[in-house]
Design a protein that fits this description.
alpha+beta; three-stranded antiparallel sheet; two-stranded antiparallel sheet; 1 helix; 17% helix; globular
Length: 77
Amino acid sequence: MNVEIGIQNVARPVSFTTDKSADEVIAALRQAHEAQDGMADLVDDKGRHILIPTSAIGYAVIGSETRRPVGFGALEG
């Protein structure tokens, strides 16, 4: 799943892919927003943690969960 998070006053968004579902990503962002520290801890598909202060989030785009086939095996003749 592709995730793009726009940070206020920063020209480029934070973009990464994750194995989490859209509902899990949304729940993590909401929980961080309601928490006292307000720090979202998201994990990408390589296991890296991405920490973003929720007060700085301008927008979040959470992509589709469908995986696109890659390679010649994906072609149907």
